[in-house]
Amino acid sequence: MSLFGRFKKKKPEQEPKEPNAAQSETTPEQQDSPGGGETPPTEPAVVEAGEAKEPPAALDSPEIRQPEMEPHAQEPAPEPEPQPEPEDEPKLGLWGRLGRRLKKTKDKIGGSIDRITLGKKIDDDTLDELEEVLVSADLGVETSLKLIEQLRGQVARKELNDAEALKHALRKGITEVLRDAPQAPERDNQPHVIMVVGVNGVGKTTSIGKMAHYFSNQGRSVLLAAGDTFRAAASEQLTIWAERVGCDIVGGQEGADPSAVAFDGVEAALNRGRDVVIVDTAGRLHTKVNLMEELKKIHRVLGKKLPGAPHEVLLVLDATTGQNALQQAKLFNQTVPLTGLILTKLDGTAKGGVVVAIAGEMKLPICFVGLGEGIQDLRPFEAEGFAEALF
To answer: Is 181 helix (H, G, I), strand (E, B) or coil?
Structure first.
């Protein structure tokens, strides 16, 4: 029997379900196409241009494709429901969000504690294993040893009986290490000058833009000095941030003297009565001596223009680099006296323990941490909140 004849046989069985051939022709294709629901049922011939190769089948039995299409028609039904996380996330609070995003670091520390204490009593062997966990989570050898020694004393006094007690004691020890670092300054100078340094690729310019947004939300007027004249389009990138935030910017030509741009930025802030000046500098490898010397010059020029400036020298570090971030902090600190740190990409690494290592070994405050890509995702650091988020 011909194909056309077989269609003729099926038609009497299916016709009662789909009396309107035009609607039946439109419905399957609307379900296939993302915009199908908005296509008027009077235009099926235009939508179905590809079906014109078999006019007899389309005319005699428009429902012939329906048995194949029905499973596809039902697939989109469950999809509107998933992922309420973006709506719930603001309700969690800053460090609740960080706790969710610090999953890798949490698994590294909290999950390992559960593993090494399962079915065991807390003793010296357990603490030896925990020491390895802390070092591998980039808390650093020195800081890890200090924390373990505190825990050994508590074990000797039989104060740690289970995993939860051990986590609580470790969380308290981490909080104390973070608190021992000096606090960020009050930023009450007029204007308050912040010099920002860091290697290429750590998110320095982006962090400056987010910092400007943070200060603007506090009601402070901000001026940016585009001192990164070394990298192509760096000034344009900072200009975009200035427009987005709604603050002033002073820049120079590509290849210009960055210390001159920093000088002009402070001068403009004094003339315009701005509250905060944030000076960008060229990203550089901390091993390049000539580029590091340039930072000293910018630092000197700022001090000549405004006594006491820069009031802060903030180093931007990529948390995903772990112990390398600690080495960067040490070398930059030898060139210009660092007053604090900005830690970016903290939400996507298993090496979040480097925060504790830097605070413990460098005795520098963590001023801001980056928790995501949004303009509001650079926030002031809180020792208690961070320690809580780790567990």
So the answer is: coil
What percentage of the chain's residues is helix, strand, coil (to nearest 5)?
60, 10, 30
Find tokens 């012939």 and name the residue: 64
CA-closest candidate to residue 231, choices 193, 266, 263, 201: 201
Whether pTM > 0.70 for this model: the answer is yes
* Encoded amino acid at 188, one letter: D
Pairing of strands 366-370, 378-380: antiparallel
Bond from prior residue into 191 cis (ω within 30 degrees of 0): yes
CA dist 362 and 340 (Å) reads 10
Centroid of chain to Cα 257? 32
Three-state secondary structure call for residue 196: strand
The sign of the torsion formed by the CA atoms of 71, 73, 74, 75 equals: positive
CA 93 to chain centre: 15
Among 114-128, 254-268, 282-296, top mean pLDDT goes to 254-268
Residues 94 and 88: beta-carbon distance below 8 Å: no
Which of the four pLDDT bands, split at 50, 70 and 90, describes residue 259? very high
With 0-12 CB in 10 A as exposed, 13-18 as middle and 19+ as buried, what is 76? exposed
- The number of beta carbons lying within 10 Å of the beta carbon of residue 159 is 13
Please give the distance of CA 61 from its chain centroid, rounded to a whole number: 55
- φ/ψ region of 223 (left if φ > 0, alpha if ψ in -120 to 50, else beta) reads beta
In this structure, what are the phi and psi dihedrals at residue 279, rounded to the nearest 5 degrees? -100, 120
d(CA 124, CA 149): 10
The enclosing H or E element of 30 equals helix 21-32
3-state secondary structure of 315: strand
H/E stretch holding 343: strand 340-344
The region, left, alpha or beta by phi > 0 then psi within -120 to 50, assigned to residue 91 is: alpha
Rounded to an integer, what distance in angstroms lies between the CA atom of residue 143 and that of residue 228?
35
Give start and end residues of each alpha helix (H) in 61-140: 66-74, 85-92, 94-101, 103-106, 112-117, 124-136
Mapped onto helix, strand or coil, the DSSP state of residue 88 is helix
For a pLDDT cut of 90, what percent of the chain falls above it?
37
- Alpha carbons 155 and 136: distance in angstroms, whole number: 22
CA-based nearest residue to 323, from 361, 288, 357, 360: 357
Give the integer Cα–Cα distance in Å for 365 and 106: 22
